[in-house]
Write a structure and sequence with these properties.
Layout (H helix, E strand, L loop, with lengths): L3 E5 L3 H9 L3 E6 L10 E4 L2 E4 L10 H11 L4 E4 L2 E5 L2 E4 L11 H12 L3 H4 L6 H26 L19 H8 L12 E4 L6 H10 L5 E2 L5 E4 L5 E4 L5 E3 L1 E4 L3 H7 L6 H8 L2 E13 L8 E3 L9 E3 L1 H4 L8 E9 L11 H14 L8 E15 L4 H15 L1 E3 L2 H5 L4 H16 L6
Parallel strand pairs: 1-2, 1-13, 2-9, 6-15, 13-19
Antiparallel strand pairs: 3-4, 5-8, 6-7, 10-11, 11-12, 14-17, 14-18, 15-16, 16-17
Helix pairs in contact: 1-7, 1-14, 3-5, 3-6, 9-12
Length: 438
Amino acid sequence: MAKHYGILGAGPSGLSMGMFLKDKYSILERSDRVGGHASSYEKDGYTFDYGPHIMFSKNKAVLDFMIKSLGNNVNRCRRNNKIQFKDKLTRYPFENDLGALSREDNFECTWGFLNNPYKEKYKNPKNLEQWLLSVFGTGICEAYLFPYNRKVWNLPVDKLSMLWAERIPRPSTETIVRSALGYPTEGYLHQLYYHYPKKGGYQALSEAFEAKLKEKVVHGYDIKSIRKLSNNRWEITDGKNPKQFDSLISTLPIHELVKMAEFPIPERVRNAIKGLIVNPMFVISLGIKGKDQDQMTAVYFPEEEFLVNRISYPATFSPHNAPKGHYSIQAEITCKISDPEWKMSDKDILNHVISGLESRNLLDRKKVVLTDVKRSRYSYVVYDKNYQKNVAIIRDWFPKQGIHLVGRFSYFEYVNVDAAIERAMEIAGKLNGSKVVV
């Protein structure tokens, strides 16, 4: 017997479920637009994403599906990322441009890699700190990997799960030696080339997905409560227009989902959810008059005193993201919700970002013609040491109740859109009873 699924949220994960499910579905979205965390907005001729997104993937089928969905509205770009290390801009990733460092820093990083006692000491690493030391050695870790990871995740590196290591390639000895001698080398090859919509920002991808749906998204539906009926069906309401479904697919942040729940949730499940860490983020957008001579895609900042962990250049992704004769910069700052930084005013945050970029010769404040600050409560899913234990409890319990979790903040995994689509394919395949192929 065919089911009717209620899909909560119209970000890429919810839209993917709509595309991949065989049975009837309805997608409920609070906003008047699709895209969720991966949406975009326009201001004074500029297009900005709510945090930068680009299209790349190790899964060729998924990447091809994303590109094909955009039709002719797609650019192919080559990565030009940098790392601000002391007074130098080095190429990304850090270990692939050791020759750009001072002789002393180059030696410390290279020697630490080639003469690494942690390979033996941490043959079976128990946390990310031990794994990084075993792979890269002291020099590279202390110069870049440790300070950058502390800054992004707002936790000591020895409190981070080994799970994150799966995303970090291991450089070969040849790569490190060539890098130290100044030979050009590249790392993270699966993201060396990336795609991005020509027009409309990253939002355009979700809008392309929306166009593929059999059923229209229900916009403006702000869910207030979720309850289970005596016939085992689910009732969702916005306080005015209740809707009933056989099963639910939630892309809502799991912390928000439980606030809406008017059904019993065991204490062990609630405790597991409380134990999950998701950090907020500032996205500071700047419109700049003039030509961007460098055409960088991003710059990373490991130093602690500058709150920004990364800036990106939206007009490098697509020239349509800025008016003619202008370009743009987006800066990201992550923190804990309890940190004093989260309580800083927009004015103070802007001044910190602009002053910091200017002192690093990455900006002339006289040419800034637009400023904008957005705050995203849910941004960075943190893989702390208790992460796997907590998500295992949650992912086991909710589907048994008829609520299937999908997406970064519901299934709760730090993934890009390509991996969110893969996860939707996996879950839709289970619900359909057959593998989803794109």
